[in-house]
Each structure stands twice: as structure tokens, then as C-alpha cells.
Queue: 3 jobs
Job 1
Amino acid sequence: MRTLLELIREIATNIHAHVIADRRHLHAHPELSFNEFETSAFVKKRLAEMCIPYQAVHNTGIVAIIQGALKSDRVIALRADMDALPITETNVSAFTSLNHGVMHACGHDAHTASLLGTAKILNELKADFGGTVKLIFQPAEEKLPGGAIGMIKEGVLDDPRPTAVFGQHVMPTIPCGKIGICKGKAMASMDELFVTVHGKGGHGAEPHKNIDPVLIASHIIVALQQVVSRNIDPIVPSLLSFGRVIADGAINIIPDKVCMEGTFRTFDEEWRIAAHEKMQRIAIGMAESMGGSCDFTIVKGYPHLINRETLADRTRICLEEYVGKENVMEVDPWMAAEDFAYYSQVIDSCFYLLGTRCEKKGITASLHSSTFTIDEDALLIGSGLMAYIAVRQLDNGQHAFD
Ligand code: NI
């Protein structure tokens, strides 16, 4: 008698080399957000080879359906993102990016290849489980407004509607073989701030004849920090960082304007909106009080990502069953943002981290770096684990096989 867990492990092992080959192909052919044409064609080709029905959603996005043969009306969804980043890869390998200036530096090649592996496993086992698995291959995680919101608007979560959505992300700080999970609020919301302070430029030796936007901008940067430190309960993480401040004058020239760009992140949607208003009010008021003016534009990014508590608990059990209790780590909330958050705002969802670090092999580079890579042994876990979570969530976990 073999359990579903054993069968999934066996198929995952058998297809590991194919998953690696797919990941390497995708790695060598990265495409930027909303331009995943070849990637999308590759995924469709693979799905067609497996006779898995699919539909295009939101341009390059794809939703595929695997229907278990046993009677069940349960539906769950698994999601992988497909886009790459505008980074020039400096790794040298047989599958180094062939698309100069574009690189899978966030592991979305691994996510896509892994989900294709999961599709293969579930497709081979479909006679032995009940319910529907939706496979979501999503474009544009890396670029606002993100691909998730477009796919949701175009109905990827409708007809049939899943009761749970799962996603995974490679993580170079977690050793290969281990999985990280954070229960509850797991990743931050992210908004982009664009601030232009207008003054009146002139000679640096005649400040009284000018309105110095550099001084106004300096006050604004300092004043806005009190929004995050004095207006919200300190147990709600909030951060504000300005990473770009352009005052394009000179040693003795006060410029006409200063442009600033920054990011605001938090874990509370109500506070997020309130903070936007406070920041705008303070900046505009401060500029006016000093004789200048201020344009303050906020481009809303992704909401915060929630791993619903009961679903996270159930997922954790699956993780422990698949990789062993000692290999599942509770991780802290992460201030990075991820558009998987959109699914989590409308349907119970769980997003976990797949360890891809291997110090022995020298695989330690951070996400979004030109030397990022993964320990491909993680793909063996990534593909099988998602298949296992799917069938367990569809309540087929106790099914045994001869
Ligand atoms: Ni990513």
C-alpha cells in the first residue's frame, strides 16, 4: 500500500531533471514584466504536451485546470509568477541569460518550472484525487500595477472559485531543504511616493532673494518620519524611505525644485490610507508655510499579504508531513511586497518560502542581485510540495493506494 505522499515524492524525483531543464531554459530566456510572450508560449507548449486544458488570461497570463477524477466539488489554486528583472546577469553558466540586461534574479524561472512540475505530478495522479486544481501562471509580479490584479479582474478566481490559493517564493537566506512560513500578516503593502518641491532658484549667496526648495525638502523628509513614528501603534510595522532626492543645483546655485522618490510600507490597509493623507498634508503644508509649494503623488502598489491563520496552520501540517517537522521554520514578517497579496485579500491564501541557499556550493547571493541563483535541489521539493498541498487541501490526503 502506497500513500499519496509516497507517490508524489516518487513522481517528483522522476521528473526532477525535467523541472531543472525547464528552469534553465526559462533562466536563459528571461522576459520583463508584461512582456512574457516566449515564457507564456513555453508554458502553453508544456501544458499542451501534458494534455492539460488552459486559457490565456490577461495577455501573457495562463490559467490551467486539472480535474481530479474522484467526486468532489472542491477547488484550490496554485500560482507561479513568470517575469524577470532589468538586471544584467553576471553569473557564468550554460544557461546564463541570453537576453542582455534582463535576468531571472528573483527566481520566477524556478517558480514557473516548479509549477509545471506540479502540473505533471497532479496530472499523473488525477485518477486518484477529487476536486479541481487551478494553475495560475501570472505575468508581471515585479512591476506595478502587477499581473495579479489584472488576472483577478479578468476572472481567474471565478468559475470555479477556489477556496484557497497557494504560492511559493525561492529564498536564498533559507537553506535548501527547508521551508519558511509566516502565519498572519506576512508581507507589507508598498506604495511609491513622488514628491516635487517647488521654490525659486538663484544665487547661493543670496538666499533671501530665493525660496530654497532644498531646505524645504529637507524639512519634509524629517517631518514625514514622524508620521510613521507618532501616528500609528508601534506594533503595526510601518516604514518610509526616500531613496532618490534630486536637487540639481550646484555649489553656489539654489535650484528651482527638488524631486524626491520614496516608498511607504505597512501592514494595515486603513492606516495605509490615513498615512497617505497625513504625509500629503504635512508636505504640502510645510512647503507652503515656507513660501514654496509641493506636488505629492502616491502611486498605490500592492496591499499587504496575509497568510490566513487557519489555512496557514493547515499548510504548515502539509509542509511538515512533506519535508519533516525539523525542516519547517517560522519566519518573521517581511517588509518586501508581493502581488500575491491581491489573492490573499479576496480568498484565503498561503504563501511560503522555499529555501534555495547552499553555502557549500557558494549559492548565497541575494534576490534581485546580478549573481543570484538557486540550489536546483530545491526544485525537487518545490514541485512535489505544491502537489501535496493541493491534494491535501482537496481532502484527499488520507487516500491510500495499492
Ligand atoms: Ni519575486
Job 2
Amino acid sequence: MTTALLMTLDLLAAVLAAATWLGAGVAAASRRPRTALALLAAAVLASLARAGVVGGLAGAGWWFVQEKVTVALPLLLVTGVAATALAAPPLVRAARSQADAGAAGSPAVVVALLGAGYAAAGGLAVTLLMGYPATLSTALVTVAVVAVAMLVTWRIVAGPGRSPRIVIAITLVTGLAGTGLAFFPSPAMDDGLDHTLSHSGMGHLAMAAGSPAKPQGRPVTSLRGPATPAAGGVVRRYTLSAETAAITLSSGRKVDAWTFNGQVPGPPITANVGDLVEVRLRNANIRSGVTLHWHGYDVPAGEDGVPGLTQEAVLPGQEFVYRFLADRQGTFWYHTHEVSDLGVRMGLYGTLVVGPPSAGVDLTLPVHTFAGRTVFGDHDQPLDQRVAPGTPVRLRLINTDNTPHRFTLTGTPYRLVAVDGTDLNGPGELDRMGLRLPAGGRYDLTFVMPAARDVVLNTDDRTPSVRLTRQAAATSTTASATAGTAANATASATEDAKEDTTGWPDLDLTTYGTPATTPITAADTFDRRFTLVLDRGLSLAGGRPMYAYTVNGHAFPSIPTEVVSTGDLVRLTVVNRSRDIHPWHLHGHRVLVLSRDGRAPTGSPLWLDTFDLQPGEVWEVAFRATNPGLWMNHCHNLVHADQGMALHLAYEGVTTPFHGAHGG
Ligand code: C2O
Ligand code: CU
């Protein structure tokens, strides 16, 4: 059974347990002992079922069950046992003889049964509202709330008079202690070192030993790119002006957008290895401000474009010049990082491709949802390209949206040769296979244009997005062959239209390609280890109270900063215990995948900058800290990032002159 399924079953069992305990209490109060007994039996079963499911879930990791094992189940056990002991005998007697019917509705019976219901509901609330990790304070406050609910119930059922002293005592003690503990400061830094002594029994994070030492602090603004290209390289100069504009999509449809130079996507930025990329960003009239972040390109920190951390947002009338060396080939993209959820959605993004370009046809295809439509570049209709059979084709897919897209290619087998700008090792031929591209991620596909069929790239199984049509040959010697293929073309076009790709299996990247040695392995000794548990919960995100997207129970900016030193080997464990997909993205570094759900990749080494965590998944990734700076580490569903799911990775000794509290 998958972890995601167990998480769902756990919720169902929790709801069922709460409903049946409460139902039993209500039936007892209305003096229906038989109904109450039946519901009591169902409640006991549902409670046992929840315990069983939690046992199964524990196998996936402590993160998935911590609050259930420490709070929800003990509370349910104590109240459930008490309710069964107090309520079952009188209910049985009442069911047997009319003379004892009154006993069914006695305050003790009703309050005990309802109390177990409150406890079951309280445990469910802890899972849904607080998540991981439940603290001692959460536990105590939950007990207090359940006890208060029982006291109020007692008042209603028994009328004015003395309430049970034991419940009053529990309410006072747990309520006061829980509220008091809530004011304990939470750690602001996590240095990733093992501080065993400061681990509390309730699963608190390791407390950092205070702020990192800042001897001769190096401001992040001093970590800039070079002024000249490498030997043999040239300077690639671009000017990007951020401005609102009404743009026209290929269908003629007009949409209001936020653009670079009046176009969406912004101007494609290309360079070859060795070149210096110099981009002058001007803000004409984007009132909230703009920056440029080079997604997946590990530029010096001062060029990373995170407002409030590496620079101030560029406001209307202002400008900022970015410079970095093109030191690595591949497919990347750029986007604003100021109110990026809105800014990217409105159009402030473009492509960054470092070549040399491939021979043949080399298409860069950023996919975006724009005004409710799937758009490739500025095409909201299929993009048609004529290609001569035998031509090598490279498609560079870039997902600039917040959610994954599924791509299928009909008409030819192909290879997935690069992921997130890094070539895969020994990528085999793929046929009738879906590719799920995470938000922010890139896939490079290659194939040779076939002679027999046209090739169609479909997005999410509905939209034919790119059609590569065979180009008619010009010479008479091939005319007959051309005629023949033209006849086929009609036939295959019909076939293409009918091809249903929904049932095609998705490629599992962790088993694709061939293994190779890597500079990092799971067996290495890591200098720092961090665990990020992704969830939802009530929290303050950017000062606003909300049902936030949380990391380790906190929302930005109060998620502890991860602290590393230059040269450290760092291991990140990322756990998704929520019901959403989270595309995790670390700035400034590629990470090597060590394992997903405990299994190491068996194919090509996987270096990613954005990896998708499905609900219930646990990923372990690693990197060498060789790019000093202050970096964002966040979910690339930018709605989630905006609502709390973002933190910083800081190199010891690097400082920022800015307020530092911007999540982007
Ligand atoms: Cu493409 Cu911080 O993100
Ligand atoms: Cu997310």
C-alpha cells in the first residue's frame, strides 16, 4: 500500500472514529441504548483501525505519524477505554431491561462517550491544522480543549452543580502549561549538525547553537559575476524592460500581460559556454517591482535576483545589471522573483539556453498557462514546423507553470537526453511513454525526423502543442517516394488524431539510463543534514495568519535557515506529508538524487534543480556547498511559496544588507 493511500485511510478512520464516538454519545443521551451500543462497538473498531493504519504508516517514516503517535492515539486510547468502561455496562443493562433504561442517559455515560468523540476529533484537528511536528504545547492545548468540551457537556447534561474535579484539574493544568509553552521561541537557525541533547521527546527540531558566527562578514552584494568573458568567449548583451502590455497570442487573442520588452515570453537569452551574459533589467511600470532569477543556473549569489536577500526589487524607473559567465550548457529559464507567484503567471519569464545549439532543428518550448490556455512561447494553437525526414530534432521543454505537465510524443521513438540542463548518462530509446515535467523543470528530447510519419507533441493528453510535419522533398528523383509518403501522410494524420496517449505509462526517471560514478554517494560522510517536512497548518506566513504551506511546522519567514560552510557535503531529506505535489527547488546548486522512498536510482545519475514530491514521498538529495551566498530553498508551486513554503540556505559568514525577509 502506498504512503499516500495510507494517509487517506488514516483520515477516513479518524473521521469515522470521531463520528461514531459522538454518535454513541448522542444516542445514549436520547436514551436509545441499543443504537448507542452499536455505535460504541463501531467506534471501538474505527479507533482500532486508525491505530492499525498509523502502524502501517509508521513504516514510511516517523514524520508521517509523529503527531498521531504522540498526541492523537494516546488521547483516543485513554478516552476510548474510559468511555467503554463507563458506558458499556449501563448501556447493556438498559438494553436488556426497561427498568434500567434511565442509566443509558446518565451524565457519566453521555460525557464519557462524547469525550471520546471530542478526543478523536481533536486528534484529527491536530493532523489537519498543526501537522508535523506536534509540540508538547500542541498536545497540552489539545487535551485542554477536549477537557473544556467535556465540562461544558457535563453542565448541559447534568445541569448546574459540581463538575467532576478530575476534569477541571486536567483542564487547568494542561491549558496553562500548553499556552505557556507556546511562547517558547522557535529556533531561527538550523545548522544541520547533530545536537542530540537538545532533541526533545516531542520531535522538536534540533536547536541550533545560536546564530552562526559572523567573523569578517562578506556581504552577498560582493559576490558578483566577472566583467569579462572567458578566453574565446564574447559578451552577450541584453536589455530587458519590464512593462505591462496587451499581447497577441497566435490565435489573435489579446491578453493583458506583464512583459519583458512587450513580449511573452521575454526575449530568449542564448549564449555559448565561455560567453559573458550581461542583462540590463529596467522596470518601466511594474509597480510591485521586478528582478531576474536564473532558474537552475548556478550564478554567483549577488546575481541571483532574490529581492530583499541579494538585491532590492527593481522599482519603476530603476535598473539593475546582471553579469554571469556561461559556464555550463543546457536548458534553463529566467523569471522575476518579486511577487513571483503573480509576476510569473502574468508573463515575466523567458528562456535561457546555453549552447552551442544542436545541429538540425533545435526548438525551445516554454509551456505556460496564460489566461486559462496552455501556451508554448506565444502559441495558443499548435505550433507547426516543417522538418525534412532524417533531420536531427531537439525539443527543449520548460515548465514555467506551478503544476506538472504531462508530455507525450507520437510518431517516433525518442530519447530524453537532458534533465534540468544536465545530460543523462546512456539514455535509452523511449516509445509510447509519458513524461511528467515538474513545475520549473526542463526536459531535452531528441529524435531523428522520421520519413513515415509526422511527429506530434501533446500536452496533458489533450492539446497537440507542436506538430512537426514532413517537408516535401524538392528533387524529382525522390518525388515518387514523396508521393508515396504523402499518401501515407494522410493516413497517418488520421491515425495521429486518433492516438490516445492517456494510457501510456509515465517514465520513471530513477530507472532510466545507465549508472555512472558520481562525486557524491549515499555512503559518504555528510557535514550537514537537514530534514524538510512539507505539510499544511495554521501559521503566520509573512505575518499573515493563514492555513499555510509549512516546512517543519513553520511558514516563511520563521522556518529555520539552513546554515552551511563552504566545502560542506550536505544531505537534504525532503518529506511530503501533505496531499499536494511540491516541486522542490534550491537556488544556486544542483542536487544529486540519493534515493526516493528509500530506493536509490538504478539508472543515470540524476542532477536536478527542481524535483517533484508526490504526496507521501521521501527524497534524499545531496550537494557540495561550493557556491557561497544566501539562497532561497522553496517550493516552485509559487502559490505555495507565497503562502509559506520557502526558507533560506545560508553560507556561514555571508551577510545581506537587505531586510532578508523576502520569500519572493
Ligand atoms: Cu524558479 Cu526561486 O525560483
Ligand atoms: Cu508546494
Job 3
Amino acid sequence: MSDTIERIKCLIIGSGPAGYTAAIYAARADLKPVMYTGMQMGGQLTTTTEVDNYPGYPNGTDGTAMMEDFKNQAERFGTEVRFGLATKVDLSKEVGGIHKVTIDETTIIEAETLIISTGATAKYLGLESEQRLIGGGVSACATCDGFFYKGQDVVVIGAGDTAAEEATYLANICRKVTLLVRKDYMRASKAMQHRVEKTSNIEVKFNTELDEVIGNNVVEGVRAINNITKEKEVIDVTGVFIAIGHKPNTEIFKGVLDMDETGYLITEGKSTKTNFPGVFASGDVQDKEYRQAVTAAGTGCMAALDSERYLGALK
Ligand code: NDP
């Protein structure tokens, strides 16, 4: 049962770089955007330590502080930022139709345009030691955290394109990268596998899984297990990169919006348009390839411009 209904021009769900950038542009275009942040205010960047690759921060910045800057900028132009989770949608297929989004199962927002920036969540293995040491040497993003392991030894877990890409990226920075692959082959594309094979400081261990991350407050090593011989070995590393894929946060859009086989929203051509008029998608929720803060921010800007043009054309 809903207890509030509110009609607005532009609703943004998700508060990562895509959502806040969409908010900045939408507010400046006088769309009076309302943003619902989701449970993790600030998104994935608030789980990393330092951000060194976002332009405009020559000395790097802290992920949480950076998202606070994004929020302040969005609010400066009048975005109303609210804490809450979109739990249900009822989208209109009509051009100029109203999209209804339920927040926290109680509030219904009726919006002329909807910008979806709900992001993606990195998958973890679920080991107790892995969870405990996230931020203490366990990471799911080599481009975010790899630099901190310069000249050190690290392991990467996974066997897809992400794992191959992260391993080769880390090999440029680290002394040695050990890639743990649970099967006797890699799922990554042949081209990516060749890159891994050609990189002399990457060692691939097949049929090998992570058994435990060793260390109390920081990573001191890992215990790996060969899943055929059941033999265990300790590998001395300071960093553990989990690269077993991401899950786009698109549960509530299943059966409604077009998505690919892994759940990423499909957008039209170079635009942020979904298959529903007035509904736009930006950031990692529609991008499994680049997944950077700066690319997410770029598509957030596009989503706001697409919303503005869509509303303009209705007049
Ligand atoms: P994928 O789902 O393709 O691969 C995940 C990998 O993680 C698999 O090899 C899987 O192993 C392994 N894995 C899953 N669970 C575990 C576990 N519990 N223990 C050990 N290993 C595990 O995810 P990616 O993120 O690699 O790629 C997602 C999509 O994005 C793909 O379509 C990919 O092609 C694309 N991509 C493209 C890039 C590019 O073009 N530059 C870069 C990165 C991603 P198993 O094989 O045994 O199932």
C-alpha cells in the first residue's frame, strides 16, 4: 500500500557518478530532478580507497569524498537527493506517458522521465576471510586499486575477460601476478588469453581455487587449493583481486526493459534510450565493457540531455 504519491518531471535512481552527473545536467536544464540514492549512497566508488584516475583531481582523492563532491554539485543546482530504494516499476509504453516508481514499497513517484543509474555490483566468492579483508588488500577493481601494489605480488581470481584484463593490467604495475583459474581452461576470449600467455610475469594456475585469504587486518598471502589433487599451497601476496564478474542491478526491470543475457540494460545506438519512451539508462547498468567512473559520468550527462530533448519534443 502506498502512502504518498508525487508527480515530478525527472526521476533519477542511483547515486554513482552516472546518477549525480545526470542530476547536475537535469537540474541545470530546469527538470527539477529528484534522486533516490539506493542503499549504497555514492555507489561502488565509496567501496574503493583512493581514486587516482578521475580527471580534475591531480593529487587523487578518496572515493567517498569524491562522491560527496558530486552530491554537493548536484544539490547546488537544486537536485533533491533522497535516501531510498526503488522497489517496483510500472513504466508507460506511451510517448509522453507517466512512469511510476515505488520507493521503499511505500512512496510512488510519478515521473515524466526516468534515468536509471543503478550500477552493477562486483561479485565476490563469499569467503569469510575475503569479506573481512575488503579494503585491506582484497579488491574487485584493478584499475582502481592496482597502483597501491606497485612492485608487489598479487593474485587474481577468475577466468573471463575481466580476469584476463585485470591480470595484464596488474602485470604492468606489479612484480608478479598469479591467476587462479578453477577449471582447466579459461573462458576469456582467445585474444585476451594470448595476452595473458605472452606476459612473462603472469603465472596461470589451472584447477586452482582460493581457499582462504591470510592476514588479520591486511592481506599477507592466500591459501590456494588444487581442486583435483586437493593439494593446498600458500602464495605470498599483498593484494587479492576478485574478477569473477559483475551483476547489474536490474532486478526490478526484469521482463520490462530490454536487457542482454547477463541482465545489462540495452540502450539504443549511441544514446541512453531504453525500449520505453522517456526511460534512459546510464553508467554501469548499461555498460559491461568500460565500467569507469568517468565513462559512467559521461553517459549520465547523455541521459540528462536525452531526457531534456525528449520532454522538449513533447511540447
Ligand atoms: P564472466 O562471467 O565472463 O566470467 C567470470 C569468470 O569468473 C568465469 O571464468 C568463471 O569461471 C569465474 N568464476 C565465477 N565464479 C567463480 C568462483 N566462485 N571461483 C572461481 N572462479 C569463478 O565475467 P567477466 O566479468 O569476465 O565478463 C563479463 C562480460 O563482460 C563478458 O561478456 C566479457 O566478455 C565482457 N568483458 C569484456 C571486456 C572487453 O571486451 N575488453 C573486458 C571485460 C569484460 P568458469 O569459467 O569456471 O565459470
